[in-house]
Amino acid sequence: MQKLAIQGGFRLNGEVRISGAKNAALPIMCASLLAADDLHLDNLPDMHDVKTMVRLLQQMGVRVAEQVQGATFNAAQLDKLEAPYDMVKTMRAAILVLGPLVARFGEARVSLPGGCAIGSRPVDLHIKGLQAMGAEIHIEHGYIHATAKRLHGAHICFDLISVTGTENLMMAAALADGVTVLENAAREPEVVDLANCLIAMGAKIEGAGTDKITIIGVEKLHGAQHRVMPDRIESGTFLVAAAATGGRITLTDARADILDNVLDKLRETGARVEVAGDRITLEMNGRPRAVNVRTAPYPAFPTDMQAQFMALNTIAEGGSIVVETIFENRFMHVQELQRLGAQIEIEGNTAVINGCEHLEGASVMATDLRASASLVIAGMVAQGETMVDRIYHLDRGYEHIEAKLSALGAKIRRVS
Ligand code: UD1
Predict the structure, then answer these.
(1) Is the confidence at residue 120, as pLDDT, over 80?
(2) Regarding beta strands 155-157 and 179-183, do their DSSP bridges make them parallel or antiparallel, or are they unpaired?
(3) Which residue, among 312, 308, 168, has the nearest Cα to 233 in the 3D structure?
(4) Are 6 and 411 in contact (CB under 8 A)?
(5) Whose CA is nearest to atom 31 of ligand 1?
(6) Is the pLDDT assigned to residue 4 strictly greater than 80?
């Protein structure tokens, strides 16, 4: 198993290009199932989840021609309308094939995702929505089996805001008969990126980016070309790393307009943040100030940035409170941060952090994708060496992270 060995105490300095967004790339790749023509995607990030999605689509019969930072997908003919358990359990986003398959082929078999490190994460909203659109759904042998002659439009109000739920139903509705209205929809920028790709494919969608999305179903979609948006979570992760190490970095190919909340929090820590076009520069002099964080659906503070800010708060000046409102078990990194000397107490969904002068390097274990990123940040500020184990979590969603951090001056290497 691979680990990262990190020597702490080096400031980050320099420029780093932000990759395409994982959470936009995955649903957009699934959108290729909706048409018989080529869908060409640029700015696809090179990471495990994207590779897993390519394999899943190929197993179904999608032809994939990979290029540098891009790929062309062709789903003219499929021979298997199934997402098997071994793929869905490693990548929950595989559920995103469900809507497109039922909408275009009238059938899908998708494994239930089961539990995962950050909570039970059910998919009931995806299922209920498709049922409202006329799909027959049976759960058998751990699989969701959905069938429909043709889906029809429906008025769907989500009980809870779900990002992939919104995306799955938006894709299904694009080929349904009639008008679908999604209320209490997710407003995440990745939903907007998917909608833009679908519109380029001929879909009729209004309101993406608001909590009410209207989709007028069309007979068929066609091929298109789309550039995947920049990853706002990768952007935030590098900026927090620079703030924690007292560095100065510039992100290129980034988007500040979708990072408002994160940039505001970084300014609160005492960092200077400047935006010029697609470049974001952060400079931190001295020790950061602790900041309180409360996660909530976009445009509020993202749950995917909670662990990284927690790492920063552990060495910040003052105390802070971090409240996680999206997932019930997303404090797995706390025990590991405590191994580095962090002072954190948890009560329910709230963590109380007492910032300390320094952390001390130790062996720690990554438990999920963003928790891994927080351990890497903590390792970069800790004294001595930190060994982060189980970094396959990190490789799922960050493109060449140790190469990018090394280029910025971090002392980080991969060991087997
Ligand atoms: C997506 C992101 C993930 C991010 C999360 C929240 C992708 C591929 N992943 O995950 O990185 O952390 O949004 O911003 O885009 N829920 C239900 N029933 C459902 C669906 C969700 O109860 O059918 C609950 C979940 O358990 C969770 C909450 O709703 O508590 C939000 O989850 P959701 O937005 O669906 O997360 P994902 O789309 O899986």
Answers:
(1) no
(2) parallel
(3) 308
(4) yes
(5) 162
(6) yes
Contacts of 96 (CB under 8 A, 6+ apart): 26, 27, 30, 164, 167, 168, 171
The whole-number average pLDDT for the span 329-352 is 96
Answer yes or no: is pLDDT of 116 > 90.
Answer: no
> How far is it, in rounded angstroms, from Cα 209 to Cα 298?
9
In a 10 Å sphere around its CB, with 0-12 CB exposed, 13-18 middle and 19+ buried, how is residue 159 labelled? exposed
For residue 166, CA distances in Å to 28, 181, 216, 374 come to: 13, 11, 15, 28
How far, in Å, is the centroid of ligand 1 from the Cα of 11? 34
The pTM of this model reads 0.97
Catalytic residue, chosen from 116, 157, 197, 356, is 116
Cα–Cα distance between 160 and 179 in angstroms, integer?
Answer: 22
**H or E stretch covering 387:** strand 385-389
The answer to whether 197 is a known catalytic residue is: no
Could you give the dihedral angle defined by the CA atoms of residues 258, 243, 14 and 398, in that order, rounded to the nearest 10 degrees? -60
Both structure tokens of 307: 């662990």
How high does pLDDT run on average in the chain?
96
Residue 83 pLDDT class (50, 70, 90 cuts): very high
